[in-house]
Design a protein that fits this description.
With about 240 residues, the protein is of the alpha/beta class. The chain has one domain: 3-Layer(aba) Sandwich (Rossmann fold). The chain contains ten helices and six strands, in the order βααββααβαβααβααα. The radius of gyration is 17 Å and the shape is globular.
């Protein structure tokens, strides 16, 4: 079995790589929605809420993720993940994978359960990422505490930061690659060649839309938050 998963917050453009893998004969689950998510998501959502019980809000925009990397994984969590992935884990195709943004919320334990699979870390400029709504906008829906706000853009930005910091805190698996959505769109051939080398399989070329990059530049409302400055710099967004 050659498993692949995509780690990235909702509205990061992860549907592009999910559709690419599907078009490249990677089994991505029995049923996918329009975004390329493996559905139904119920067991994954429940798994997210179990992991969240072990994350503490330190105050302001800081969370303690350390216990997730050392404690015993909750057996109910493992059962739910195996339920969610049942069709993927039993499929006989040469390559299997899955994509659903909520996998990012449980990334530390996914890495510990599946140490040898290939992880595609998908990043998008958070200023674009927070322009549209997503299921993970309100982290309380998944049992995660954060400083409450009535500003929906700020709420989305906090969700983006939480998931980014959770990813950063997790010890890197041995097989992982970081891909920026913007590079996939604007430098598709070069980016696909990197991915082909990483995955060891030829990849299909899908239609991409250059106008999906930098939408924040003409958007109304607030999209700049001071607490995103460090992550913008780390990922070379200007």
């Amino acid at each position: 079995m050659s498993l692949i998963t995509i780690i990235g917050r909702g509205h990061s453009g992860t549907r592009a790589i999910s559709h690419t893998l599907y078009a490249s004969s990677v089994f991505m689950g029995t049923t996918l929605n329009r975004s390329g998510d493996k559905v139904p998501p119920g067991a994954m959502y429940d798994a997210c809420r179990i992991l969240a019980k072990y994350v503490q809000l330190n105050g302001n925009l800081s969370w303690d993720f350390e216990p997730l990397h050392t404690m015993e994984i909750d057996p109910e969590f493992e059962e739910l993940i195996h339920t969610y992935l049942a069709d993927v884990l039993t499929d006989v195709s040469t390559h299997q994978g899955w994509k659903i943004p909520e996998t990012t919320l449980v990334y530390p334990w996914i890495v510990r359960m599946f140490r040898d699979i290939k992880y595609i870390h998908w990043i998008r400029d958070p200023r674009d990422c927070i322009l549209g709504g997503h299921k993970t906008d309100d982290l309380r829906d998944f049992g995660i505490n954060y400083p409450l706000t009535d500003d929906i853009r700020r709420q989305r930005a906090i969700s983006w930061l939480y998931q980014y910091e959770l990813m950063k805190s997790t010890p890197k698996p041995k097989n992982y690659i970081v891909v920026r959505f913007e590079d996939f769109v604007l430098k598709q051939e070069e980016t696909l060649e990197r991915l082909e080398c990483f995955l060891g399989i030829p990849l299909a070329r899908i239609v991409v839309r250059p106008d999906s990059v930098g939408r924040w530049k003409t958007a109304d409302g607030n999209y700049n938050f001071d607490f995103l400055a460090e992550s913008l710099e780390e990922n070379h967004y200007h």
